[in-house]
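Quick log. Single chain, no ligands specified.
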Amino acid sequence: MKSAVTGTLLGRVLWPAYGKTENMGKRVMQELAGKAAIVTGASRGIGAAAAIELARHGVGVVLAARSLEKLEAVAGEIRGAGGAASAIACDVSRYSDVAAAVEHCQSRFGRLDILVNNAGVIDPIARLADSDPEAWDRVVDINFKGVYHGLRAAIPVMEVRGSGVIVNISSGAASGAMEGWSHYCSTKAAALSLTRCAAKEYGDKGIRVMGLSPGTVATDMQTAIRTSGINPVSQLDPSVHIPADWVARAVAWLCTEDAAEFAGTDFSLKSDESRRRLGLIN
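-> predicted structure:
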């Protein structure tokens, strides 16, 4: 793979240089090259950035989301820059779709080593008494059941291999209450519980399961939050949100042995200490 190749996607550098953390980047690539991953919600935001980052390190990536057209655009950028990527339409609220993505990864790359459970939604934001029950249920189907579906489909395959890493994209909302976010807070809390349960059940089988709590990220979700005008997060200045690329760097690192200590927990990207550990800040 040609790590020096450059390209652009949504205004970002496709294969960004690590600069002073180049040695870390080389270590990550040495460990991840040749592996295969599935990233859900990979058509934009954190999912797209994670797929790009993993591919940059030599991982064959299956991009999964509901919009195949958008997925193909991201996969095309990756392939154009020398990476290996395949796209599959997938609604994580349907187990059959997730199982099909796992089968697709095995067929395309001959293995499955990494699953990034990233697909998630926060709309519609509303206080409990104003919420729409069907829309609220849909968030449960995606944010909570979608994570379960990923675990259920991927773990048996990883168990046969005796190894694997699953990163569930989490949130500070998993351990706190925010006005208007009852659906998001409760589903992220439930997903964190799944992370802990899966790590407890399969940690001794060589499968590491962990969460990643990135803090506020400059994605379309923040636009929806800001538009709602509900709770303090909607009032944050956009400049405080971290780029999706930072989260992607954390995802790739969590897939290495260096991050094994975080199995069964949420790794937080909100502290300066964790950001320095990844070389994101000085």
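The mean pLDDT is 89.
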